[in-house]
Amino acid sequence: MATIRLTAAQAMVKWLAVQMTPEGARFIEGMWAIFGHGNVAGLGEALHQGLHGDLCGNAPFPTWRGQNEQTMAHAAIAFAKAKGRRQAQAVTSSIGPGATNMVTAAALAHVNRLPVLFVAGDVFANRRPDPVLQQVEDFDDATVSANDCFRPVVRYFDRISRPEHLLSALPRALRVMTDPANCGPVCLAFCQDVQAEAYDWPEEFFTPKVWHIRRPEPDARELSEVAALIRGAQRPAIIAGGGVIYSGAEATLGEFATRHAIPVAETQAGKSALAQAHPMNFGASGVDGSAAANAALSSADLVIGVGTRLQDFTTGSRTLFAPGARLVSINIHGYDAAKHGATSLVADAKVALEKLSAALGDYRGAPDAPAREAWLAAVDAKCQTPVAPGQLPTDAQVIGAVQAVSTPATIAMCAAGTMPGALKLLWQPAQGGYHMEYGYSCMGYEVAGAMGIKLALPEREVICFVGDGSYMMANAELATAVMRRIPFTVVLTDNRGYGCINRLQAGTGGAPFNNMYADCNIEDQPQIDYVAHAASMGAHAVKARTLAELQEAIRDARGKRKPTVIVIDTTAAPGPGEGLAGAGHWWDVAVPEVGDHDTLRAAYERYIANAANARLTN
């Protein structure tokens, strides 16, 4: 058997470089890296060879430098989401804090079912220098390292303590990342001495391989049962989740809903699977849901989930659906398909909808078209309300202003705070024009995520909505975007604190405390110049004092070759659904049973009344 002598790190890079998609691209496009002891001497040298040497032949394997391990991983995750899980990126860190910085990002990818390869530097397999710098020691288990923190937040974990472990670990990693049901992050904890060890690798190990993403067919009995339930329903409604997009089933869903006259509500991950202009798109579901969608779901005798894990925001903490309503769940994974006592149809979303449509024939539901039109009119009115003299704009008014200058190529993105709920309610995207990380709702995803989307879809305009709180948590990848000339637009709404949680605190009977700067234990309220801060990293940065200035700055950003940050002051007072014709729904946030003021006692009484409506089946 012919062999080639390489270090384990060199073998990893060479192998990753020949794992292909059916379209001829690399599945792992490249690797984000922050080097430190634990990966600089082994993997760092291999990545240099992969980019500048002949390790990867005539197609160099790229390495990109980030500013923080968590945020460069966020960029990789956003890239994979924007690519519909058909391509991914890898991220490497040193041992110790560099590795544990990535754990939050791994959890984000895991919750959202998104592929990313984490290559974390690890301790010495030979244990000669133990305890090595930054090593976490378990007094009772010598096999534990800091990287064991990844175990609950990745789909596959392996510790590479011998070079030949890669012969099985790498194919297993790609199998997980390309599996439509078990897709998620992988962590290969790579012992630093092993990275540098040489081994005689079989040449056939580096034969290019194409990874196809399968489309599982539905079970015939399940298909028949679900078709019968739909035929027997008078008022069915659909909830479309991210699985619709990952299946590439957007057009199929639109055709299914139109042919059978079934209204479609959206989750955060499923929003823009159908354009808002689609006549069967009734808007957002649940806690941050539209009046039309929630009315359709609460009156439905059959709710059909497609590619959704039925998170609490989607179901109004299990209080949205009518008592006695049946639930069907079409999902690629049996775990998700069986939630809430649903009748399961385990299959690829596109295949399942096609086969269901054929089985349903000329069946049609009864959507309430006037409710949809009334909802959209309410959205337009709310978003186009002029700012009163002397007042700051609301989030809705900011969204309306941005919407007015958006194009079919615009992607609105966000992750945490007030804006996700407001955007889900109010943003009216073209198909594919929305990107929200709300499975983990991770503050700090926004700026890095916007960069990842733009890397995946360079032809699209990316507009990142971020509050001042999230911006303060993680903004350093602006510098990376400047260095790499990656243009996107950041709309930074400054309400001077954690406005979203301040409203939640008030809504659950609490006194304003520790969220807005004005309510914190501080000597002076900070006066942060976000324009100067962003400009110091090389971004184009401006302050918009009016909505008209905001719109002009967005138009101007389209001619830039680097990121633009537009700062606008907003009010912290109103919630996203205020005045929107019954929009929104209850959310289960536990309220203290006892307290010392009437506001808290009233909030607890409301909590008990709402919680009594929850469906308890799993």
Task: Give structural notes.
This protein has 3 domains: 3-210, 3-Layer(aba) Sandwich (Rossmann fold), CATH 3.40.50.970; 220-372, 3-Layer(aba) Sandwich (Rossmann fold); 384-569, Rossmann fold. It has 24 helices and 22 strands. β3, α2 and β4 form a beta-alpha-beta unit. The longest helix has 15 residues, at 369-383. The mean pLDDT is 95. It holds the Pfam family TPP_enzyme_M. Keywords: Thiamine pyrophosphate, Transferase. It comes from Gemmobacter aquaticus.
Q: Could you provide a short overview of the structure?
A:
This protein is of the alpha/beta class and 618 residues long.
**Strands side by side in the biggest sheet:** 4-3-5-6-8-7
Q: Report the structural category.
A: alpha/beta
Number of strands: 22
**Shape descriptor:** globular
Q: CATH superfamily name of the largest domain?
A: Thiamin diphosphate (ThDP)-binding fold, Pyr/PP domains
| Uncertain residue segments | none
Strand content: 15-25%
CATH secondary-structure class of the largest domain = Alpha Beta
Through-space gap between termini: 54 Å
